[in-house]
Each structure stands twice: as structure tokens, then as C-alpha cells.
Amino acid sequence: MKTYRINEWDKHFENNRTRVMDELRWVPVPNKHDGEGYKTIMAEPDGIIIYACWHLILQVASKCHPRGTLVRSDGTPHTARSIAIKTGCRSVDHVQRALDFCSTPEVGWITCICDENESERQANVTRTSGERQSSGDVLNGIEENRREEKHTVSPAGDGVCPFSFEQVQALGVKHGFTPDQITEFWNHQVRMNWTRTITPTNRIVMKTPAQLEDCVIRFVDIFAKVARMQTDPDEIPATV
Q1: Contact between 54 and 98 (Cβ < 8 Å)
Q2: Which residue in 47, 55, 166, 219 is a FRET match for 134, CA 20 to 30 A apart?
Q3: pTM of the full predicted structure?
Q4: Is 136 exposed, middle or buried (0-12, 13-18, 19+ CB in 10 A)?
């Protein structure tokens, strides 16, 4: 949840009289019109509305505890809606516009503070979005290659891995396999020079994404069982 605070409240909106008052019925406001923040606001098409709402915001802030921080009496942050209701402003959008614009670096009259939970949530959203994008890029690349390539059987391989671990991992996750299962599958395929089957016969080198995905679906779970049971891989039948 966002909390808005007027920057340098004590410096600009308090004087020797207000500092001894517990509650204010008025608020002193500077009357200069040559500041960069003021001119930036008035250069906007709706500058006069922003400036009018700024004064409403100041008046509400002067009655908050602590003064200058836009919080209600119960400690919860004021919103554009609550400020509009409190001041009788008929447009919540105008108040929000003033809060947002006065919080920009160009004006710098208001600081918007996010609580730790909000910051953590935003960080998680960003991180999750990035992870999904990364996984999606891998899968999209595989799907694109699948459309372009013919699903042909290649001759015996040269022992060079044609796929990255990230590609294999993305496919494994897509089909519901665990990280340990995917890792065991990867290690086995490297040992087998990336052949489709795990026996010396019927060796089919996986050169296309379609062949890779087919092998993941067919063998990841089997390789995991082999690792757990310490079974001889030669005893596992090859698929047709």
C-alpha cells in the first residue's frame, strides 16, 4: 500500500506559530512562482487543476499526524479517493493526477512510499515474469524450429550435444518432471551421445526439437527409476 508524504514539510509549511499548535486550522504556503516545480506543473495542459488539487492535499496533510504525511487517524494511508471525499473534490482522478505528478522527479513535492510487503510483492512479480519470459523464450524457440525443420532421422551422432540444458529443463518442466529427473536424463543422454534409445541398437541421433521432446516424454521418468534402483540401463527395452 502506498503512503504519500509532503517533502520538507517542516521547512516549507511550518513556522514559529504553527510549530506550537497541536492542531492547525490553516497552513502557511510559500507565495513564490519562480520555482522549477511550480513552472513544471503550470506548463501542463491541466496544470491549474494539478495546482488546485495540490493545495487540497496540503490542507489534508496539515491535519494528519504526523503533519505532512498523508495518513488517516487510524494510521492507514490516505488515497486519492479519501482525499477527494474529505475535501469535497468531485474528481478522484484529478486528485490522483496531482499525487502522481507532484511525485515525479521533475516536481519533487511529494514522496510516494511503498511498504515492505508491497515492495516484496512487486519484486516477486518482476522476478516471476522474468522467469516465465525466459522459459517461454526457450519453448517458443523450440516450437519455431519444429515448424521449420523436417522430422527426419539423422545418421549416427558425433557425440556433440545439440541442445542446451536450459532447453531440456524447460521441456521437462513443461511435462511435469522434477529437477532431479531432468538432471539424470541430461547426464545419461550426454553419456549416450544424445541417441534416442538407451540401448546400442536402433540408435537415432536427436537433431530436431521434436526428437528432443519425444525423448524427454519417453525416457525422463525411466532414467530416474534407473538411478534410484541402480538398474542396468541395458535391461530397459528400447521404444519402437
Answers
A1: yes
A2: 219
A3: 0.50
A4: exposed
